[in-house]
């Protein structure tokens, strides 16, 4: 029983951490970022102003869309 309890407690902790990380990611995605998620260069203020939830610079966003939006 002790082993099963520890497994359940560990799984609960992993689930809570996963939920917390998902919430942080959703918040960041909604707010946008100062640096590109892919190349880590600063996202220009003009782009962030036009698209506040941007997580990529224009160049990386174009690449992303070519690859993943078929």
From TrEMBL:
Segments forming domain Zinc finger DksA/TraR C4-type: 35-66
InterPro entries registered for this protein in UniProt: Znf_DskA_TraR, Znf_DskA_TraR_CS
UniProt-recorded Gene Ontology molecular function terms: zinc ion binding
Official protein name in the record: TraR/DksA family transcriptional regulator
First and last residues of each zinc finger (dksA C4-type): 36-60
GO biological process: positive regulation of secondary metabolite biosynthetic process
SUPFAM superfamilies in the record: Glucocorticoid receptor-like (DNA-binding domain)
Keywords of this entry: Metal-binding, Zinc, Zinc-finger
Organism for this UniProt entry: Rhodoferax aquaticus
């Amino acid at each position: 029983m002790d082993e099963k309890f520890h497994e359940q407690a560990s799984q609960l902790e992993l689930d809570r951490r996963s939920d917390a990380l998902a919430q942080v990611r959703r918040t960041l995605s909604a707010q946008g970022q100062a640096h590109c998620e892919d190349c880590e260069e600063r996202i220009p203020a003009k782009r962030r102003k036009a698209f506040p939830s941007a997580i990529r610079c224009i160049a990386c966003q174009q690449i992303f869309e070519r690859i993943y939006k078929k």
